[in-house]
């Protein structure tokens, strides 16, 4: 872990170097009953050490954008660079830790072995592997469950295991797609705190998809509000909250103001006339 | 020793006693031959095996051999241990069949796989069609390997060999009086059965010729021995049966019947028998087995050297 | 010899072309999916032609495709007669009876877990019984004509179909069944609205397996006794009289019919189980 | 053993049905024999009886029904007759110390088993390699898969003689090799189809995960595709070994019918000893049962060690 | 629809007749590695017209309790009656509309046909079926999607379709297991309002599982807080909120007080020492 990495200074983001730059990004899926435009004219800069949340109605292209960043999907128009390279080059440099919307643990591996999977592929030594597994299991409160198989865990625990898997190796960019969806509020709060601490400690760049407005506001330095059909960015909100964020920051007027702006942006993407 | 591979027409049984005796009694060895005997079976066409180089020499019936020759596989008869034909049609007496013309409008079981030619010739000589029951027609079934069709009366008559299937009918508890048989030999449509065949092109090779001379000599010695010691010969066959399914009584009886068929042959083909076979086959009605007189289908080249 | 070299070259060229097509964006086209295997088949036939003539293989061992095609064209009357006897009478009758019976029995025994647990393992044994052992027995029971062939086919297709249908009927997930329970749906309603639709992918799997078995069963059964027509009859006697080209013509008929049957079943499967993930792209 | 009891009950039901069927199946033969032995039979004459249904015959000749249970050449033997024949050719041979004699089914089963195992080995290897190629290469998928299906519509019995002749021409000695080839021909297909399904079982998201790690094809194969395919592999191996056995027995007819269960069946047919056929058939079924059960145990052990619920 | 049914009067619940009564309910699952006690000593009375939310950490037995009510699971101890009958009798009287945790639509039926499924089983006429389908599709904002197949819809739309299916027929008791889990906040708010209106109009009795504290407080007349290992009820909170609830009631002190009490109850069920 690069615990000794340069710690990003303050909440201002503009002076730091851009990690992800999307320019006029378009992505159209060809399906048998016509084309689906999942992303249109998406422009976004994410700087090193940013914590960027994506929020928007179901089907607005959040997952798709994350997948484009990770080179799992190829844009049909526009440009995107990651650290100045193409996403695919960055992928080959193993820049990404990705937490998928569904846990996606391999059922034939124990929790510990699931977490070791990326470490084996990236050639960590046995000792390093064990060390990392122990560390991340503790991080997500799953100590003692390493030897269990995924189906022996509840849905929430599985989701935490998949988060642990993404944190086990030292990816520069962490992409998380609704990681806390199936968790109850208390566990969610707890993991939010842990994630913030980790981000603060390591200075990783994080892309985070969520449906929860308070979660987005609490975690992010930048909130991207999207709207569907076709998927595009309708608002980008730079957070004015301090880097140090106790849970009760959620009751401050500043927090509520940002949340309000996000909610308005979100509402604009919906058709309800109330 | 020189290696020779012999492909039989059918499974190990007393029908092939002479070769097993020659092997067992060391007659081949005396001639400095190392003989491998390959049993046949359903689906094994000895002609195809020899064409594919799987055997040097094969036991085949002349109709099948001549048919293969016309198909472009130049088989040559080099010796003919069987003088007479053992094939017959066995019928239930209670069906009212008494003479060949009574077969009209009946269901008959016939062996195919190249063994149907004598039957077809016979029917055409009688002027009976084989396309189904009719005033001058018979219903032909492709008979399997056993005599069940007769026992269960799915057919009025079936093909049998004097030395094999006929006795199975008897063994099933049927008394000979209940049956009536038509031997092809008696009907004047007999064709030559088990003969020794090789590929024509090989005969030009003196070394091969020499090998065959020794092979025929030893084989005929085996047949002599078998005729003189039928019970011992049957036991030798039994010892060589790898399926372990043959019975002693059956093989001893078969040996006895086989001896009647080999009697009268010293191993050399009698050209008169050949002519008769060819003319029978040529008269095969609308769809004759062979369409023209074969040439060079037999030779005394080997038997002359072997037997004199 | 030149033909041999030429055919090898052609074959390699076709393979290279297929590679191109397979990696092109049109690869999922219906036309491409048919074109690629067909030209490969054609090239392989040509290679066969080249090998047989180039190496001088005797036609009584392996005839050249051109000879087979000539025989095929010259013997259409015989081939048609055999097709009617073996395919239409023997195989299809047996296929329909066997699959229907298996399906009905599967639905019936499915109500009793005792019967299913008892019958399925035995079904696996029966499926492993060699037809060459069953065929002579059935021929002696059902006679020489197509009835015994249909019986052999029934025995062959029955258990694969039964096992697949039973498995399919159990394929509903717990929640889908619970939903029916909350509606207090009756057995028949649950069967018609939930379990049969959910079983269809498995039922079709069984039908596809059975379609390849049916033809083979009918042909093999003819080895153990038959009238003087039928594909199995022709093949078995053809080998004996060295009419190998006719044998191959019959094999070609079997392959074509088998492929059409399989393709037909697959096509119906596509229509019926359009909703299954394996049918979506 | 939650299945043992139901299986036994179903077996018992089958045996009972079988017993009941013996009487009508054998009544004609029984009456023919009785008549020859001088008994009065109604109606007299085998030809006349052909016109009468078996049920009528059983009602009219109740004394002779039992004789159908003790025929030498029954159309349908009783289970006890088959059992006795099986015992005579197996257990009794063992007791006499002649387990490996040519008259012992154990010997013939071992011959068949040998070819089956070779065919199985060859077939599964081909099937698995083919599946790997098909999953990794689109050309293979598009050009080979349809032909694999077509290959199974070709009656193997028609090819068998040519396989033998061709392998002889290629200088292959003995009949074991062609037998194994025929057996492999039947065995490879279920394995191929099952493995293709299995190797494609990983979901898009499971594959995406490895893409984010930039895992190589090799790593993807060993860490994802292979483990995900194992349940499919075992299922198809079980079908495959049964097919290999059937293939060997089919191959034993045209390969000289010298030894093996297939040869026993053929000779039993040719010499009119139905009991020998039934005994060989039963032996084949038992052999298949043993092989499938062994694979089943292997499957349970492996999947358990992999932590999969079974 | 029993739109003319007796409209429950006011927020007091004690004077109305009990619909579901659980006494000393126990449920133990026998699994191969030991027994799992999913419910222990659960006592609960739900009156006609109650809107009861169940909240509690993952694995505390919420789903199990709902399943017991619907006779999908049989208690191993204690008693439960529904309208004075056993749950199974009530099930046979078709008293339940159940929304499962996962959408569970039948893939071979279109959305409209999925919604018609219960109607076919319960013998509605063609005309009635069509009418009901149109009504509920509108209710969940899926007009125009009736002819689509489930896999052609996004996850959130599928969930709404499954809600529509449960509302299409006139069940007396509605059991909903995290029905709004995969929806974003705006859609969720909208559906919350719709659900409240429906409940108000029809006087149905509703059992509702959720992980969201505000949702539970906003919707319910009664909030049941559960805690795991073994699953039991730790708190039952009778809501003092009025029956008429605009969305902005969520900012009132009364609302926040109830939410606080729920959060405290929930926190007690967790092991975090923060
Ligand atoms: N493989 C695909 N083929 C066709 N259309 C797709 C594909 N993947 C996504 N889409 C479409 O692209 C749009 C964006 O999908 P995406 O998964 O990015 O949404 P999302 O914002 O992540 O939604 P959710 O909140 O439900 O996860 C949707 O309309 C979806 O239907
Ligand atoms: N079929 C079953 N067999 C064994 N244990 C079960 C079964 N169903 C549930 N359980 C166990 O019972 C307990 C309660 O499960 P339940 O599904 O009711 O939880 P829940 O409160 O709905 O959780 P969630 O919020 O994750 O949906 C859990 O510990 C679970 O592991
Ligand atoms: C498929 C087939 N059917 C019949 C025969 C007939 N046959 C040829 S030799 C012989 C000896 C008699 O015991 C018999 C019966 C065969 N060879 N192949
Ligand atoms: Mg998404
Ligand atoms: Mg639940």
SSE arrangement of chain B, N to C? EHHEHEHEEEHEHEHEHEHHHHHH
Major beta-sheet overview of chain B: 5 strands, mixed
Question: Helix proportion of residues of chain B, in percent?
Answer: 40-55%
Report on the biggest sheet of chain A: 6 strands, mixed
Strand order of the largest sheet of chain B: 2-1-3-10-4
Number of domains of chain A: 2
Sequence stretches where pLDDT stays below 50 over 5 or more residues of chain A? 1-14
Secondary structure tally, helices of chain B? 14
Number of helices of chain A: 8
- The chain-level mean pLDDT of chain B equals 88
The CATH class label of the largest domain in chain A is Alpha Beta
Largest interface: C-D, 59 and 57 residues
**Overall 3D shape of chain A:** globular
Biggest sheet strand line-up of chain A:
5-6-7-3-8-9
Which descriptor suits the 3D outline of chain B?
globular
GO molecular function, one term (chains A, E): ATP binding
Protein name (chains A, E): NitT/TauT family transport system ATP-binding protein
Domain ABC transporter (chains A, E): 22-253
Family (chains A, E): Belongs to the ABC transporter superfamily.
Short description:
The complex is a heteropentamer, with two copies of chain A (274 residues), one copy of chain B (308 residues), one copy of chain C (281 residues) and one copy of chain D (310 residues). Chain C is an all-alpha fold and 281 residues long.
Describe this protein's structure.
The complex is a heteropentamer, with two copies of chain A (274 residues), one copy of chain B (308 residues), one copy of chain C (281 residues) and one copy of chain D (310 residues). With 274 residues, chain A is an alpha/beta fold. Chain A folds into two domains: 18-95 and 173-270, P-loop containing nucleotide triphosphate hydrolases (Rossmann fold), CATH 3.40.50; 105-170, no CATH class. Chain A is built from eight helices and nine strands. Chain A has helices at 62-69, 87-92, 111-121, 126-139, 155-167, 185-202, 213-219, 253-268, and strands spanning 18-31, 34-47, 51-55, 77-82, 96-99, 173-177, 205-209, 222-227, 232-238. In chain A, the strands form two sheets. Chain A has a six-stranded mixed beta sheet, with helices on both faces. In chain A, α3 (111-121) crosses α4. Chain A starts with 17 loop residues before the first strand and ends in a 6-residue tail after the last helix. With 308 residues, chain B is an alpha/beta fold. The model of chain B has no long low-confidence stretch (mean pLDDT 88). Chain B starts with a strand and ends with a helix. In chain B, α5 links the parallel β6 (107-110) and β7 (139-142). Chain C has helices at 2-22, 30-54, 65-74, 76-109, 113-127, 131-142, 146-169, 174-182, 187-221, 231-240, 244-272, and one strand spanning 226-227. Chain C starts with a helix and ends in a 9-residue tail after the last helix. Chain C is an all-alpha fold and 281 residues long. Chain C folds into two domains: 2-57; 71-279, MetI-like (MetI-like fold, Orthogonal Bundle), CATH 1.10.3720.10. Chain D is built from 13 helices and no strands. The model of chain D has no long low-confidence stretch (mean pLDDT 85). Chains C and D meet through α1, α2, α5, α6 and α9 of C and α1, α7, α8, α11 and α12 of D. β7 of chain B pairs antiparallel with β1 (226-227) of chain C, so a sheet runs across the interface. Bound molecules: adenosine-5'-triphosphate (ATP) (2 copies), the ligand Cc1ncc(C[n+]2csc(CCO)c2C)c(N)n1 and magnesium ion (2 copies). One adenosine-5'-triphosphate (ATP) sits between chains A (29, 31, 36, 38, 56, 58-64, 101, 231) and E (154-156). Chain D: Its main location: membrane. Chain D: One of its GO terms (cellular component) is plasma membrane. Chain D: It is found in: Cell membrane. Chain D: Keywords: Cell membrane, Membrane, Transmembrane, Transmembrane helix, Transport. Chain D: Belongs to the binding-protein-dependent transport system permease family.
